[in-house]
UniProtKB/TrEMBL annotation:
InterPro entries reported in the protein's UniProt record: ArsP_2 (IPR021552)
Keywords: Membrane, Transmembrane, Transmembrane helix
Transmembrane domains' residue ranges: 53-72, 92-115, 121-141, 148-168, 209-228, 240-258, 290-308, 320-342, 379-401
Presence of keyword Membrane: yes
NCBIfam families: arsenic_eff
Name under which the protein is recorded: Manganese transporter
Amino acid sequence: MEMTKSVQQWTNPFYLSQFHFAYKRLVLPVFLVALLVTPSTQALTVAALSDSFWAVSCYVALTLVIYHYLALVVKKDNALTRLYHYSRNYQVLFAALLGALPGCGGAIVVTTQFVSGRIGFGAIVAVLTATMGDAAFLLLASEPITGLGVVALGVVVGTLSGLTVNYFHADDFLRPNKPEKAVCDVSCQKTSEDLTQVQQHAINLQGMFWQWMIVPGAVVALLGSFQVDINQWLGLGEERIEWLGAVLAIVCMLLWALTKELQDYQSTVAEDDKKAGSHPMQKAAQDTNFVSAWVIMAFLAFELFNHFSGINLTESLAGWGLWMPLVGLAVGMLPGCGPQILVTSLYLSGAVPLSAQLANAISNDGDALFPAIAMAPKAALIATIYSSIPAFLVGYGYLFLFE
């Protein structure tokens, strides 16, 4: 009897929860600290973390703050989004424009409206072709001219793709009669009741962190862009600003790790949910740390591979030139923004050519593919395949003409 009672006690969910490995994302900040205190990897880790924080995260945060403040002004229900309901060809153009907006909000709106019968299948292809998801923030922050060019190219290619699809398919092509499950659009977000106390505190601290860092971070990032020696300019010791950036990057990753548990593929590669009515700074902070996590993983993977293998990854991948657009296209077909940020990070590191970045930008659907798969899986699959065709043509067209 006593043994049975003991077994029941230790199989009780309360006791089991004490040994549950929660917050698997904590592996990242713990790994970063380990690299930072190991003499053989310390220098490259400081350099990678500092670059990712000052040169990427601060610019991304500033871009996202501007974006989220503008999103307060430009609501979903406005003249622009209503106008495209009056013409199937206008639908395609406006869907491509919504998809070109950095992030996944515009693409998710178009996806839900297709299922509800308000727009046609051509618009779905247009928006999924035009969108870059969160990778657009990274590219625009790091290389604004290239980023604007890629976004503009996405609008043109998305519009042409949508118009072509309209010629061959009716508006209700593959539209489900009754969606199997309800789907949240950009206005359907988590409430505070969905979060644990630890998660809520971590989310709040993310907002506070970037509220205080946005201005000094932007100043340091701007001075760095003009090749100003920050340590000398501020009268600091050697590599002080680099170490500060590395520490701040780890703080960001620690807060990011505590805001959400990894449960499935979507929770790993998609941006974190945000509460309805969150302050623009709070939304920007959560998205910035998500982008930063993938950028840090890409930067460190690149540097660690070069360090321990003795192989220059940039030179090695140069031999793959003919295959690189196809690799970028294949990664782009994966749902979620994480893999796409990885490709963009490798492009910014010089490891992959612009042709691969272009193929990835056009083929990738970002987080918008998750609600599309949930509501209309057949339409999502065909739309993804259709978007891969122009991605192939653009990627290899640029490769043969300019690289």
